[in-house]
Design brief:
The complex is a heterodimer of chains A (256) and B (153).
Chain A: H1 2-19, E1 27-30, E2 39-45, E3 53-60, E4 71-80, H2 84-87, E5 94-103, E6 106-116, E7 122-125, E8 133-142, E9 149-155, E10 162-167, E11 179-190, E12 194-205, E13 215-219, E14 225-228, E15 233-238, E16 249-254
Antiparallel strand pairs in A: 1-11, 2-11, 2-14, 3-8, 3-12, 4-5, 4-11, 5-6, 6-7, 8-9, 9-10, 12-13, 12-16, 15-16
Chain B: H1 2-18, E1 28-30, E2 48-49, E3 52-53, H2 57-67, E4 79-88, H3 89-96, E5 108-116, E6 118-120, E7 129-131, E8 134-139, E9 145-150
Antiparallel strand pairs in B: 2-3, 4-5, 5-8, 6-7, 8-9
Chain lengths: 256, 153
């Protein structure tokens, strides 16, 4: 009796597998051609009139895009939705972002930063491959310059890797970030993988960088506005305000 | 030493006064890294031939067709390489606003001007945007891709 049921059960399982996609790799609808959008697992803060800097510790634990058709990343953004030059650009916003990314052309994850400053254009730079390590990502408004530019720092604890970049404004109006977003971004339809990765020390600068060269900060105190497009996924493993953390611990992962 | 301590004390007072925070939310200090930044390495891109990196439309086009451009959501076949020039960093900075930390102004780079269709995404919740012009900058010695961006129409 059991022997006659086994092939039937196997047939049903195979049928279900085919109906669900028929492949062993994860599939998702985050492609330009399939969905016309990106997918995100992020949290967003917009509780203060201006954020002068953002910082998070993000380990690189083996992000992969082997066989994928888009990209997957972990990163932080500082965003300006209201400066007139920003509202007039094609994205209707200015921003500075930093993180690490694996994509269709480069399976090994690499560090990147990008910006669209007031009066500028979209730019993205690639300092180096991202080793398996804890990376510190800092973006801060530089009050020592006029108009204020933004500095980007990507470094490890020993400073054996330290990359820095400058995001200048070319319109005369400095960027005024009213939002901080952090988490994971996914594009494409298949193949990307991202192990559970925890963002720690989630802090923001309360004033621009001054002559004393200090990032004066507060930890994030709320969960922010969370979004997950499943995939990718995010959750607060230790919410902001948890003793022993600075700004809580947010974990992202992808893609099954 | 005293001057730095005084500067930090004054700054902390100013920060405390300027920040609408509760008494238990006195801002904390984190010193940004102050060391010499590493030289930007870029990503492996153009082939290094026995005679060096060839900076021309054919070589850059072949790279893009094989790998697409990082973060470009459009198809590689829709990216056209219009021209490739060998410049020094200072000239490339003047032309397209590159940031190549660790490079000297007189070091050689390849500047590729791109046409066709380039599609990039911004932060959530923005939608991807299509651009008709862009550029890519390569290290003329290693062939690595250092940076890319869009250009106005």
């Amino acid at each position: 009796m059991h022997t006659s049921r086994t092939p039937a059960l196997a047939f049903c399982v195979a049928l279900c597998w085919l109906a669900l996609g028929g492949t062993s790799s994860a599939q998702y609808a985050c492609g330009m051609r399939t969905a016309g959008r990106h997918c995100y697992a992020v949290t967003e803060w917009s509780e203060h009139p201006e954020y002068f800097g953002a910082y998070s510790d993000i380990p690189q634990l083996g992000l992969s895009c082997a066989g994928c058709d888009g990209f997957v990343d972990n990163e932080i953004w500082m965003i300006d939705d209201f400066t007139p030059e920003c509202q007039r650009n094609p994205f209707r916003q200015c921003w500075v972002e930093a993180g690490y990314l694996a994509d269709i052309g480069q399976n090994l994850p690499y560090l990147f930063w990008a910006d669209f400053a007031p009066g500028g254009q979209f730019r993205i730079a690639f300092p180096a491959y991202a080793a398996i390590s804890l990376n510190h990502f800092m973006i801060v408004k530089d009050g020592r310059t006029s108009p204020a530019s933004f500095l980007v720092f990507i470094y490890n604890t020993s400073h054996s890797t330290l990359f820095s970049a400058l995001s200048p404004t070319s319109s005369g109006n400095p960027m005024k970030a009213n939002r901080i977003v952090m988490g994971q971004e996914l594009t494409g339809t298949m193949g990307a993988t991202a192990p559970a990765t925890t963002f720690t020390r989630n802090i923001w600068a309360v004033v621009p960088l001054g002559p004393e060269y200090v990032f004066w900060y507060q930890p994030q105190r709320t969960r922010g506005f969370e979004r997950q497009d499943t995939p990718p996924w995010e959750r607060w493993t230790r919410p902001p305000g948890t003793p022993g953390t600075e700004g809580g611990e947010l974990t992202t992962h992808c893609c099954r | 030493m005293r001057i730095r301590a005084l500067t930090v004390s004054l700054a902390l007072s100013a920060v405390a006064l300027a920040t609408p925070a509760r008494a238990d939310e006195t801002p904390k200090a984190l010193e940004p890294p102050a060391g010499e930044p590493s030289r930007v390495a870029g990503l492996p891109a153009l082939t290094v031939h026995p005679g060096g990196v060839i900076l021309d439309v054919k070589e850059v086009g072949a790279y893009i067709q094989a790998h697409n451009l990082p973060r470009n959501l459009g198809a590689a076949k829709d990216v056209k390489v219009l021209s490739v020039e060998r410049l020094v960093v200072a000239e490339a900075r003047e032309r397209v606003g590159i940031d190549t930390t660790g490079f000297k102004d007189d070091e050689p780079v390849g500047l590729a001007l791109l046409g066709g269709t380039l599609v990039f995404g911004g932060p959530p919740p923005s939608q991807p945007v299509t651009f008709a012009h862009g550029y890519a900058v390569f290290d003329a010695i290693t062939g690595n891709l250092l940076m890319l961006g869009t250009l106005p129409d």
